[in-house]
Amino acid sequence: MNLRFVFVACLLVSLPRVAVALDYVSLTRDGKPIHLAGKVLTEAQDGGLLLQDREGIQWAVRAEELVKRTQDETVYQPMQQKELQAKLAQEMPGFRIHTTAHYLICYNTSLAYAQWCGALYERLCWSFQNYWKKRGFELRDPEIPLVALVFDTKANYERYARAELGDAVASIVGYYSRRTNRVTMFDLTKMNGLQGVGGRIGNTAQINWLLMQPGAERMVATIIHEATHQLAHNCGMHGRYADIPLWVSEGLAVYFETPDLRSKRGWRNIGGVNRSRLDRFRRYLPTRQPNSLETLIADDKRFKNLDTGIDAYAEAWSLNHFLIHRRCEQYVKYLTALSQKGPLLYDTPEERVQAFTDAFGANPAELDADFLRYMKTVR
Ligand SMILES: [Zn+2]
What we know:
Layout: H1 3-6, E1 12-14, E2 21-29, E3 32-44, E4 49-53, E5 58-61, E6 66-75, H2 81-91, E7 96-99, E8 103-107, H3 111-134, E9 146-151, H4 154-165, E10 174-176, E11 183-186, H5 204-211, H6 217-234, H7 246-256, H8 275-284, H9 292-298, H10 301-304, H11 309-326, H12 328-339, H13 349-360, H14 364-377
Parallel strand pairs: 8-9, 9-11
Antiparallel strand pairs: 1-3, 2-3, 2-6, 3-4, 4-5, 7-8, 10-11
Helix pairs in contact: 3-6, 6-7, 7-11, 8-11, 11-12, 12-13
The protein binds zinc ion.
């Protein structure tokens, strides 16, 4: 469902971040009754609303679906590890759950693979928070344990994920859903081309070794990319349904995506050069238009168009690299301002460009020469 259409033309009223009482909402969807308990995040003037339930799923409820809404004295409390674990066990029969400090890895793979995912994601969580802390942006821990669903085979993953992704599922090896707040993926060691390389996979070291093989790096990058989205949306960097420009949210995910499985921390050098994105940016340069930065910033169209998407991601990586390395203080202020945005309020292209210009003291056209000069030095 496209939330933009649910709430279109309605003036939204953002509610305070901390809801005191628990909201109960009953609705009818596709002829079936649904009963929710959680906190209402925002309401549309036509009576539609956005509710986050206690396990962190966000529900966009249209006015015509709404049957009843009440509230009582119970305080909204997000589910914690044990309760969420029980809920997942019920929802995913046949799956086991591996818990780490911040994650619930719900898996039907080998335990070794679930442990590998948990360790990788914990390292990412630590590195992500630490990276921004050092740059003056203090993030918080997620208020609800982060869930990753890991399927044993691509076929089982596709069967499950098709409901959310449609036919695109065939070309996507993992994804983060802003609605459910979960990352969903499958055992990458079972991919064609890797099978037979590693023999029996019994422990983390063997999995690491297998996933260092040529062909696996981009797949591992994808599941880290998706986990970076999950962290950004749960640690106070982006609101889940806030209008965060894609050059920022995607640019940051590609900035963090490349792992170094040889290193204990998982990343030898966060913010190091992402080779495949840099190569792509270089190939884009001969046809790059003088207003390229402006079109990247003003709206998300280039990211969503199949013909221009890959270049947009490459340019977003490049722009984030430039701003973090050359204008970090301004960039952190800009990110902090974005983190304050409420859900489902959309900026116009002019407002986006203006916010960028205010943050960096130069409009995209004025920044372009500096940006390109910098990118020539990136090796
Ligand atoms: Zn992404």
